[in-house]
Structure formats: structure tokens, C-alpha cells
Amino acid sequence: MVTALPELPFPLRPYGPDAGWSYERGTLTGRAGPRQDRFVPPAGDALEPSSDAPRLLGAPPEGDFQLVARVRAGLTAAFDAGALYVHVGEREWAKLCLELSPDRPTVCTVVTRGHSDDANSFVVDGDTVWLRVSRTGRAFAFHASADGAHWTFVRVFALGDAARAGAALVGFAAQSPVGEGCAVAFDRIAYRPYGPADLRDGS
């Protein structure tokens, strides 16, 4: 069972269904099972009991940070995805995904405050992309990149008491809402104890 990654200054623990998380030679792997997803339909009234997906999360130190990883996902069925994930509460969380949406690999985001929104950003060439979640002051920011050097701004948002130490968990997730499962792999994982200098200049 994965409880720590050498790249991260905080321990991790699994949430949701078992993903068989493992870490070897710089690569974290896991797998969502059939019909596993983390989403609260905007038109619905409640979080369905079956709406859950594997996550591996931990509490970063107080202050600004960046969590970076290159994700590769076995995108077979619509909405299969690998994601970076932020959790503040059962109905307050967000994810930045490489998702088959519905038939092309796409950078997608979901921010949930009671109910989930759902937004597509841009199409990806292939099954791999770099993802980054940052805490900057009292907000979170999502970025994505083709090469890990130049970053495209995806969104910035508030989520609970983001600035308080221990208030937010961050980490990794996998999903396969309508498919038979989705294997994910995260490498080039990095933690930076500071936020981006500018959210929109590509840095």
C-alpha cells in the first residue's frame, strides 16, 4: 500500500474504492474499476452512494504550493480519466483530468460546491499530459502542459478554507464512469513549496 512518495513532503492515504496503488521507479500507478466516478450531477439532489472513485490524498504543509505530475491514462471508454484532485469536504472538492471527453483526450475540470460543474479546456494529442494544481493565497489554480515547461492556465477558484493548514487534501485520482475500468500512471511528480509567479504567463 502506498503511504508516501519520496517527491512529496506529506504522507498519503487511499480514499474510495481500492485502486491497487503502487509506486516504483518514480511512477505511481493505479486503476479505477468499472463505473467508478466522483461527480455530483448539477441537476441532482444528492451525492449518489455509487458516485465514488479511487483517490490517493494527503495534507500539504501550510502556504502556497504546486503539485505537478505527468499523467498517462488508458482512455478506452468515454470519460475515463486520470486526475489531480483537491478535497476540502464531502461536497467541496475539485479535479483536473486528462479525460476521454467523450471521444478525444481532453483536459477537463470539475469543481464541486454541493453540486459539480463540468468544463472542458483543450484537446490533447495522445494519452499523456502534464497537470498542475497550485494553492495561491486563499485560492486554487489548475494548469496543464504538453511539455512540463510552458503551462496553459485552465482555471482559478475558491474552495473552502484553502489557506488553512490541514484544511485541504491533494493528490491523485482515477475514474471510469461508464467503462470497464481505467489504468492510470503518474510520473515526473514534483512538489514546490511556492505558487506560480503568474497564473497566466505560461510559467
TrEMBL record:
Q: Provide the residue span(s) of the region labelled Disordered.
A: 26-58
InterPro entries assigned to the protein according to its UniProt record, in alphabetical order: ConA-like_dom_sf, DUF1349
The source's superkingdom equals Bacteria
Which Pfam family is one of those matched by this entry? DUF1349
Query: What is the protein named?
Result: DUF1349 domain-containing protein
Query: Which species does the entry assign this protein to?
Result: Streptomyces lavendofoliae
Q: What lineage, starting at the top, does this entry show? A: Bacteria, Bacillati, Actinomycetota, Actinomycetes, Kitasatosporales
